[in-house]
C-alpha cells in the first residue's frame, strides 16, 4: 500500500518512478477474481481489514480518484458521525485498484525483480542494484518492503520491540442471495467484548464479511478455534456472530486462517543512513492489526513523504527532516497508543484466564516513553483497554472512542472520557457485562454480550472430546 501510494503521488508531481516488486504474480483481470490473487510477499493479504475514516480522509486529500474508482466498482461507503466517512472493502479489492492505477499512470514503470543493495555515493543514494546486477539510478529510494525492511535494514535500528500478545483466528463468509449484513456497532466493524477474548466482524465489499476471534497466544483452551468445527461452535455461542453466520444468511467461503507472532515494533534510521533513502510504513512501524491502523498509517506516511518532496524537490535533507518529524511525532503517538492498549488487554485477559480479578494487579505502567494519559479515580488508574471497551455502554465514551479508533483525533483526546469510565468501573461494570442499574445500556446498538471465557473453553473442550 505504501509503495503504490508513494508511486502515484510522486509520479503526479512529474517525477519518473520505477516500482520494483519481487512478487511477480500478475494483477487479476477483474476485481471479482482479485480475492484469489497470490500475493506471496503480503502475508496479511487475506486477513480481515478495517479501512478507517483516516484512510478515506488521506485518499480524499492526496489521491481522490482512488476513492472514485472504489465507489465505481461498488465498494460501500460508510457514513459515520461528524461527517466522517469510511468504507467496507477487502484488502484484495483496494490493492487491485491501486495496482491498476499505478500500472496506468504516466511516469510509473513496474518491474519484477529483487533489490540486492542500495548504491551510495558521498552520503546520498544514487540508485539500487538488482539481484542480477542491473543498476537502477535514482535520487530517492523508497523502501516499502514491509516489516522486514530489507532495503533499509543495514541502517535501521530497533527503538522498541514488544509482543502484541494476541492471536487471530478468522473465517470469511458470503451472504446468500437476498440476505443482508448483520448489525454493525463500531462504525465499520462489529465487536463483542469477552472477558478474556474478543470477537470482531468485518464487513467487506461484494457481500463478503469476516468473523475473527482474538485471544492470548498462551491460551490453550481457545487454541482449538483454529479448527472449523470449534470455530463454528464458538460463533454460534456469541449472539453477534450467530446472527451474522446464520445458515439462512451466509455461508463460509474459506477455511479458518490463523495469524500470530505479531509484534509492536518501531525502528529509526541510523544517522549514517544515506540521504534519499526513505523507509515507509511497516519497514518503520508495525502495530497490532486489531486496531486496523496499518493501511491508514501506510498511506499517510507515503503522502507525507510526497508532500516533503513537493515542497523541496531537490533537497533530500529536507525530505529526511520532514519524515523524521512525522515519525517521531504522530506516528510515535499512535504506536505508543497501540502497545499501551495491548499491555492492558493482555494483563486483564491473563488475570481472567488464571481465575483472578480482571483488574488485579494494576495495569502495567508505560515504558520507553509511552504515556498513558490516565485519569486516577478513587485511587485507581483507568486501564487503556477499559476506555475502548466502554464504548459499547456509554454514548459519550462511544463517540470519543469512535473518533479515536478512526484516527481522526489524536490519542491524547481519550483523556477527556477517562473519568466517565472510572465511574463505570466504580459502579461494577466490566467488559462483557451490563452496567449495574442501567436499564438501557449505552447506544441502541450496544455491544452484544459474549459468554465468559471459562464457559466457552469448557464448551469447546467438550466438543473436542466428543470427536
Walk me through the structure.
- The longest helix has 38 residues, at 316-353.
- This protein folds into three domains: 2-146 and 270-276 and 296-338, FAD/NAD(P)-binding domain, CATH 3.50.50; 167-259, Alpha-Beta Plaits (2-Layer Sandwich); 342-457, no CATH class.
- Helix 1 packs parallel to helix 7, helix 2 packs across helix 3 (64-72) and helix 5 packs antiparallel against helix 12 (453-466).
- It starts with a helix and ends with a helix.
- The strands form seven sheets. Strands 10, 11, 12, 13, 14 and 15 form a six-stranded antiparallel β-sheet that branches.
- The chain is of the alpha+beta class and 467 residues long.
- The chain is 33% helix and 20% strand.
How are the secondary structure elements laid out?
Elements: H1 2-11, E1 17-21, H2 53-62, H3 64-72, E2 77-79, E3 85-87, H4 91-104, E4 108-112, E5 115-121, E6 124-130, E7 135-137, E8 141-143, E9 156-163, E10 167-175, E11 190-193, E12 198-203, E13 208-215, H5 228-237, H6 239-245, E14 250-252, E15 257-259, E16 263-269, E17 277-279, E18 285-286, H7 294-311, H8 316-353, E19 376-377, E20 380-381, H9 384-389, H10 395-405, H11 418-426, H12 453-466
Parallel strand pairs: 1-4, 8-17
Antiparallel strand pairs: 2-3, 5-6, 6-7, 9-16, 10-13, 10-14, 10-15, 11-12, 12-13, 16-18, 19-20
Helix pairs in contact: 1-4, 1-7, 2-3, 2-7, 5-12, 7-8
CA radius of gyration: 23 Å
Helical content, roughly?
Answer: 25-40%
How many H/I helical runs? 12
Name given to the CATH homologous superfamily of the largest domain? FAD/NAD(P)-binding domain
Between the first and last Cα atoms, what is the distance in angstroms?
Answer: 43 Å
Strand content: 15-25%
Q: What would the principal axes of the Cα set say about the shape?
A: globular
How many beta-strand runs? 20
Mean pLDDT: 89
Number of domains: 3
CATH level 1 class label of the largest domain: Alpha Beta
CATH topology type of the largest domain: FAD/NAD(P)-binding domain
Describe the main β-sheet briefly.
Answer: 6 strands, antiparallel
Low-pLDDT stretches are: 362-380, 440-447
Amino acid at each position: 500500500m505504501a509503495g503504490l501510494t508513494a508511486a502515484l503521488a510522486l509520479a503526479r508531481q512529474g517525477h519518473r518512478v520505477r516500482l520494483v516488486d519481487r512478487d511477480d504474480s500478475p494483477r487479476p483481470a477483474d476485481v471479482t477474481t482479485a480475492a484469489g490473487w497470490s500475493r506471496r510477499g503480503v502475508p496479511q493479504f487475506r486477513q480481515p481489514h478495517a479501512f478507517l475514516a483516516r484512510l478515506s480522509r488521506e485518499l480524499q486529500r492526496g489521491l481522490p480518484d482512488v476513492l472514485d474508482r472504489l465507489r465505481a466498482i461498488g465498494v460501500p461507503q460508510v457514513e459515520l458521525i461528524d461527517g466522517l466517512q469510511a468504507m467496507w472493502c477487502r484488502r484484495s479489492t483496494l490493492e487491485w485498484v491501486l495496482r491498476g492505477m499505478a500500472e496506468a499512470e504516466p511516469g510509473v514503470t513496474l518491474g519484477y525483480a529483487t533489490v540486492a543493495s542500495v548504491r551510495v555515493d558521498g552520503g546520498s543514494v544514487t540508485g539500487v542494484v538488482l539481484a542480477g546486477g542491473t543498476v537502477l539510478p535514482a535520487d530517492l529510494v523508497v523502501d516499502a518492503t514491509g516489516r522486514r525492511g530489507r532495503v533499509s535494514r543495514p541502517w535501521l535500528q530497533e527503538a522498541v520491540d514488544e509482543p502484541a500478545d494476541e492471536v487471530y483466528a478468522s473465517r470469511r463468509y458470503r451472504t446468500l442471495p437476498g440476505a443482508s449484513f448483520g448489525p454493525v456497532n463500531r462504525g465499520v466493524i462489529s465487536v463483542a467484548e469477552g472477558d478474556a477474548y474478543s470477537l470482531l466482524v468485518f464487513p467487506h465489499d461484494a457481500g463478503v464479511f469476516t468473523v475473527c476471534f482474538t485471544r492470548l497466544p498462551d491460551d490453550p483452551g481457545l487454541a482449538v478455534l483454529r479448527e472449523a468445527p470449534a470455530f463454528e461452535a464458538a460463533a454460534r455461542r456469541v449472539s453477534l456472530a450467530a446472527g451474522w453466520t446464520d445458515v439462512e444468511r451466509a455461508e463460509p467461503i474459506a477455511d479458518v486462517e490463523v495469524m500470530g507472532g505479531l509484534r509492536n515494533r518501531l525502528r529509526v534510521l541510523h544517522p549514517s543512513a544515506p540521504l534519499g533513502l526513505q523507509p515507509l510504513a511497516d519497514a518503520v512501524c508495525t502495530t497490532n492489526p486489531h486496531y486496523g491502523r496499518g493501511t491508514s498509517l501506510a498511506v499517510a506516511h507515503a503522502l507525507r513523504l510526497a508532500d516533503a518532496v513537493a515542497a523541496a524537490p531537490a533537497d533530500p535533507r529536507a525530505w529526511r527532516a520532514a519524515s523524521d518529524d512525522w515519525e517521531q511525532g504522530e506516528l510515535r503517538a499512535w504506536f505508543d497508543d497501540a502497545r499501551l492498549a495491548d499491555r492492558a488487554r493482555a494483563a486483564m485477559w491473563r488475570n481472567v484466564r488464571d481465575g483472578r480479578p480482571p483488574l488485579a494487579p494494576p495495569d502495567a505502567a508505560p515504558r520507553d516513553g509511552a504515556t498513558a494519559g490516565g485519569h486516577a479515580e478513587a485511587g485507581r488508574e483507568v486501564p487503556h483497554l477499559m476506555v475502548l471497551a466502554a464504548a459499547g455502554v456509554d454514548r459519550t465514551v462511544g463517540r470519543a472512542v469512535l473518533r479515536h479508533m478512526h484516527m481522526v483525533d489524536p490519542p491524547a483526546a481519550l483523556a477527556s472520557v477517562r473519568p466517565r469510565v472510572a465511574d463505570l468501573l466504580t459502579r461494577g461494570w466490566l467488559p462483557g457485562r451490563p452496567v449495574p442499574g442501567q436499564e438501557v445500556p449505552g447506544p441502541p446498538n450496544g455491544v452484544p454480550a459474549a459468554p465468559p471465557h471459562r464457559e466457552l473453553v469448557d464448551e469447546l473442550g467438550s466438543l473436542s472430546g466428543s470427536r
